[in-house]
Design goal:
It is a single chain. The chain is of the alpha+beta class. The protein is about 40% helix and about 10% strand. It has four domains: about 170 residues, no CATH class; about 90 residues, no CATH class; about 180 residues, Double Stranded RNA Binding Domain (2-Layer Sandwich); about 60 residues, no CATH class. Strand 6 and strand 7 form a beta hairpin. The longest helix is centred in the first third of the chain and has 75 residues. The structure holds a DNA duplex (20 and 20 nucleotides). Its main location: nucleus. Keywords: Coiled coil, Nucleus, Transcription.
Length: about 600
DNA sequence: GAGGACTTCCCCGCCGAGTT
DNA sequence: AACTCGGCGGGGAAGTCCTC
């Protein structure tokens, strides 16, 4: 009997509480619905999940949103109960899967051998009743007619019924699998057709490209010969480049449009030097087939946009981007740069609280990341910046992240950029072990150490996933923008500034953030400094008052003070004496280190 | 009109794949 | 190995619609 209880409790634990702490809302909801009933109201469901502590308490309830959204997806696990507002149920496929696994589990002979007959009978009985409720008649054989009486008869009858039930269930499951397979096969077929079409298009375009190239060479040779014969230049010269377009088997509409390589030459004064304007779609094809720049490279009138495209498309990556980034245009786009082949990216800023003068309110909170200090740009040491980032000395941020010792718990990591002999030193200090900071020569290396430790604690293989800059926060658009605006940032020669878009807003209007595309101005203007009010306490973590100008002997405050000094010194008109307000600065973290 | 139901938009973090 | 990029799903917030 003790064994039975043990087995039952084991089964219960494995089926009712599978790593509850690590569950998401959807997993928890699925679990509850599987365990407690086919349908449930959103409020009850939420309450059960909360009561059982199945999700992290810090998560705000959004099960409602999630379930509504899920219910719109074609293959979602959740369905709405028609006619009952706010009620949800599991989709049939999930129920079937659940029942199949249950039936497979339940027919574990060893387990059943240990159970008394009455328990087994009751279990099977309830199982069948539940299936009948859930499936209705969909899986029922025309001749099947089960009744409760069958369970009260002999044990042989029970076994037969049970096996026939399992047989029908598996049969139904197999049918569904076959249907899925058929639909997937047809989808595959259509995709293959599309691929073959694309290949034909590609072949056709390549043919045209080769044609065009050979014609261009011929024209160049002819022109040279003409020039040697005549002193006058070739006017409207492109006439010679008219290309006989080969016929193509492709029926694509796209190909019916005039392509850049075959402009109406008679109307173009310099078809070789003036590429026709293209739609974005045309440009895409243009990029994708890597049409040689040679055709237009002699032109001084080629747009900068094309310069970039040409620079990019020479690499395989750019070629790939040409096809995959089409839909990302709204998020990040390439724009003209004014030459030099530099590619500037437009990224969207996130709204951050600003003072009246446009300077940020510290700490800057961006999700799990808090930036306490931007630090100071070290422009005269090349190792403190690269093409993509500037690593300001004294940069300080904190981030909530899984603990290295117990990954199910989150702890606070403080990130610093320190001064090393050869360049910046990236330091991460875990809240749990402040005495053993992790230091590395790159942010990613630092982050990798943490990631490795966490993965080891989780018994997971370490991956190369993750980004140090992301972790530290200096790759975040809003932070990057602020760093770009720091004094001396423009002196970092290797650094290629990023262009930012103002954040999208819904409802409340935010104060527009300063960007590097705005007129360059220091984060704190002198007039603004005069008006500067103490930073509200609510935005700080245990702030301690500090009078600037009075000095501080605490070396740990140096980055903070440096930052203030850099602000103050950024405006030549400013006088530090004018800055008389008592500032409240977050010193708690500085003291911690 | 109030409150609940539902939708939409955006941000965040994880992680795999690709590039340097 | 270090780093970047992009996809994807979870989650929050705010808006709109609907019912009583």
């Amino acid at each position: 009997m003790a064994t039975l209880v043990k087995a039952q409790s084991k089964a219960m634990t494995s089926s009712t509480a599978p790593d509850i702490a690590a569950m998401t809302w959807l997993e928890a909801a699925e679990h509850i619905l599987k365990q407690e009933g086919p349908e449930m109201h959103i409020k009850d469901l939420t309450e059960r999940v909360m009561n059982l502590g199945m999700v992290n308490s810090h998560c705000r309830t959004s099960l409602e949103t999630l379930l509504y959204r899920q219910s719109h997806k074609p293959h979602s696990k959740f369905k709405r109960v028609i006619g009952r507002m706010g009620w949800f149920k599991l989709s049939n496929s999930v129920i079937a899967e659940n029942n199949l696994s249950q039936s497979l589990n339940c027919c574990d002979e060893e387990e059943e051998a240990m159970m008394p007959k009455s328990v087994i009978v009751h279990k099977r009985k309830s199982k069948v009743i539940r299936r009948e409720e859930e499936y209705g008649d969909c899986n029922r054989e025309p001749d099947s007619d089960e009744s409760d009486s069958s369970y009260s008869s002999t044990s042989d009858d029970e076994d037969d019924d049970d096996w026939s039930m399992k047989y029908r269930h598996i049969k139904g499951f197999a049918k569904r699998l076959i249907m899925t397979n058929v639909s997937l096969a047809s989808e595959l077929q259509s995709l293959e057709n599309e691929i073959s079409k694309s290949q034909q298009e590609k072949k056709y375009l390549l043919e045209r490209l080769i044609n065009k190239q050979s014609n261009a060479r011929t024209t160049t040779t002819t022109n040279k010969q003409d020039q040697s014969k005549q002193a006058t230049p070739v006017g409207g010269g492109g006439g010679a480049t008219s290309v006989k377009v080969p016929t193509t088997p492709s029926n694509s509409n796209r190909l019916k449009r005039p392509l850049p390589s075959s402009p109406p030459v008679s109307h173009k004064p310099h078809p070789l030097t003036t590429p026709p304007t293209r739609s974005s779609e045309q440009r895409l094809i243009y990029n994708a087939i890597s049409e040689p720049r040679d055709l237009f490279s002699t032109s001084s009138s080629s747009s900068n946009e094309e310069e970039e495209a040409a620079a990019g498309k020479r690499t395989g990556r750019a070629l790939k981007e040409g096809t995959t980034k089409q839909n990302k245009a709204s998020k990040e786009e390439s724009i003209g740069t004014g030459g030099g082949g530099r590619k500037k990216r437009v990224r969207r800023l996130q709204a951050i609280p600003l003072h009246e003068d446009g300077s940020p309110v510290f700490p800057i909170k961006l999700g799990g990341l808090q930036v306490h200090s931007l630090g100071k740009v070290v422009w005269d040491r090349p190792s403190f910046h690269n093409e993509r980032y500037i690593w300001p000395l004294g940069f300080k941020s904190t981030r909530s992240y899984p603990s290295m010792t117990n990954p199910s718990r989150r702890c606070l990591y403080t990130c610093h950029i320190l001064d090393g002999k050869d360049g910046p030193i990236f330091e991460m200090v875990s809240e749990e072990s402040p005495d053993s900071p992790i230091r590395a020569s790159s942010a990613t290396a630092c982050h990798h150490i943490v990631l490795k430790a966490i993965n080891e604690a989780r018994d997971k293989q370490a991956t190369n996933a993750g980004s140090g800059p992301e972790f530290f926060g200096f790759s975040h658009p809003s932070i990057l923008n602020l760093i770009q605006l720091l004094p001396d940032a423009d002196k970092c020669t290797k650094y290629k500034p990023t262009i930012f878009q103002q954040p999208l807003t819904r409802g409340k209007a935010h104060q527009p953030l300063p960007t590097s595309t705005d007129h360059k101005k220091p984060l704190l203007s002198s007039s603004a400094k005069k008006k500067e009010k103490p930073i509200p306490d609510s935005s700080l973590v245990g702030g301690a008052p500090l009078t600037v100008g009075g000095g501080t002997s605490d070396p740990s405050l140096a980055p903070v003070v440096n930052q203030l000094i850099s602000y103050l010194s950024s405006d030549s008109d400013s006088n530090s004496n004018e800055y008389e307000h008592e500032l409240v600065i977050d010193t708690s973290n500085s003291n911690r280190n």
